[in-house]
Amino acid sequence: MFSFALLAKMVERMVSLSVGIMLSTSLLHALPEAFESNADPRSLFATLLGGLLAFFMLEKLAILRHSHHHEGDGHHHAHGHDAREAGKSGWMILVGDGMHNFTDGILIAAAFFANPELGLVTALAIIAHEIPQEIGDFIVLLNAGFSRTRAYVFNLLCSLMAVAGGLIGYYTLDQASGLIPYVLVFASSGFLYIAVSDLMPQMQRRATVRESVPQVLLIGAGVLIVLFLTSAH
After folding, report:
1. CA 224 to CA 21: how far, in whole Å?
2. What's the CA gap between 147 and 97, in Å, rounded?
3. In whole angstroms, what is the distance from residue 92 CA to residue 113 CA?
4. Do 154 and 146 contact (CB within 8 A), yes or no?
5. pLDDT tops 70 at residue 208
6. Sorting pLDDT into bands at 50, 70 and 90, what band is 114?
7. Helix, strand, or coil here: 68?
8. What is the dihedral of CA 27, 29, 32, 38, to 10 degrees?
């Protein structure tokens, strides 16, 4: 439904809402929750720095990977070269997305262990970010030669990796509760990096007042959603 019926309208709106949810979840709840624990603040800041650098390197590797393949770049390729390369990019997207979703599941489990309200808004933040990302991945798979049904099935299987991550997190973090503050900080570094480095620059490309006002309002709506969901805490 999102990929075909509502693609043009919903993706841009979800990006703006996702920014508000991610920033407020990280700065107003996850990070304060982590720093209110007994963990060493210096170690938590080091985790935050390491997380930001780790996400930077992951994005850099993705950019370098895509730079090796340019459709219609003016260079002569052997017949079938672009199709093979596009197919490879599709499988690489699936592997990367599966690992990403598995990590998301662990982060959601850690947030729920910290407190249920934080777990709820963390899950909501991940959902708001995942919808545009999964639509993008779906389009990449179609470009790589996957049929719509095949692309949907493989995307769904990758999404189920979040369930696996959540179950593993549920059964392991209970015994390693001291790791929860560090997982929360690492999750926050990912939210902050994605929001500031990826999503907000996309929004800045739309510079008219008519386009900017809804963006600001939706960011504010994202913040209000997080505040509302955690107001009982």
Report:
1. 8
2. 18
3. 32
4. yes
5. yes
6. confident
7. coil
8. -140
Non-local CB neighbours of 198 within 8 Å, separated by 6+ positions: 59
Residue spans per domain, the chain: 7-65+84-231
Distance CA(117)–CA(138), nearest Å, equals 31
CB contact at 8 A, 104 and 162: yes
Q: Which of 145, 160, 152, 50 is nearest to 100 (CA)?
A: 160
* 144-169 average pLDDT score: 87
DSSP helix, strand, coil percent of the chain (3-state; round to 5): 80, 0, 20
Find the range with the poorest average confidence among 126-135, 153-162, 204-213, 216-225: 126-135
221, two tokens = 């709506």
pLDDT at 105 over 70: yes
